[in-house]
Amino acid sequence: MLNTIQPKVTLVGAGPGDPDLLTVKAVKALAKANVVLYDALANDEILEYAPKESIKIFVGKKIGNHTYSQEQINQLIVDNALTYGHVVRLKGGDPFIFGRGSEEIEYIESFGIPTFVVPGISSAIAVPANQGISLTKRGTSESFWVITGTTSDRSLSNDIALASQSSATVVILMGMSKLSQIVELFQKESKGEIPVAIIQNGTTSNEKIAVGTIDTIQNEVAENKLSSPAIIVIGEVVKESNKLKGFYEEFLSKEIINVKVP
User: Fold this and answer.
1) Which of 32, 61, 137, 208 is catalytic?
2) Which residue among 39, 91, 191, 239 is the active-site one?
């Protein structure tokens, strides 16, 4: 009997968290999946777009808790594609923004399995936008950085030191465990008053936010009990958000009151 299994793999970006921000093309890919391997950052509601009879395997990674190593995930994708056919690899945000999508494709294609990519809305852009933060704005910010806070060897990215010297908006993913180091770098550049917003579980029903400045943000995070996964946004554009400008107006008025007249 001929083997009728036709293996293929589609890397699908699940978007920032809100299932309504999933693309139409992603929905179509999921509808044709035989197997779905999904991340911790992919909203479980999105799995409802996959056929009920499809196999669903959680391969998510959280700090200090990896269900599978990356090498094991790569092999799972290949094994399931060869056994069942169409595998959808569902990844939070966009597969190519700190998603290791290119690594997975290289491994899969080494077995002669065709791959396809469905881009997703990156949390680096969508989460700030959901709070009214425009990463670029004429007269305020001409560009923005998107940086991982934690590198593969668990150290702070050297790019953050470079970003702290620029006037661009800085967006840091996976940086909560390094927040104190990030604050120190900006303070060294005399940027203690630069606005900061930290958004946890952005675009979801349990979204939480802390806003302040480089000098105050650690206290705000502690008071609001924020943790990972969260996005750190640093730059003047933060205080120009219609949703957040009230906080900064109040903050500035308190600063003026506290100024001692000689």
Assistant:
1) 61
2) 39
Band of pLDDT at residue 255, cut at 50, 70 and 90: low
Q: Output the 3-class SS for the chain.
A: CCCCCCCEEEEEECECCCHHHCCHHHHHHHHCCCEEEECCCCCHHHHHHCCCCCEEEECCEECCEECCCHHHHHHHHHHHHHHHCEEEEEECECCCCCCCHHHHHHHHHCCCCCEEEECCCCHHHHHHHHCCCCCCECCCECCEEEEECECCCCCECCHHHHHCCCCCEEEEECCHHHHHHHHHHHHHCCCCCCEEEEEECCCCCCCEEEEEECCCHHHHHHHHCCCCCEEEEECHHHHHCCCCHHHHHHHHHHHHHHCCCC
| Catalytic entry in 174, 176, 191, 239 | 174
Q: Has 176 been annotated as catalytic?
A: no
pLDDT digits (tens, 9 = 90+) for 12-21: 999 999 999 9
20 labelled catalytic: no
Q: Is 39 a catalytic residue?
A: yes
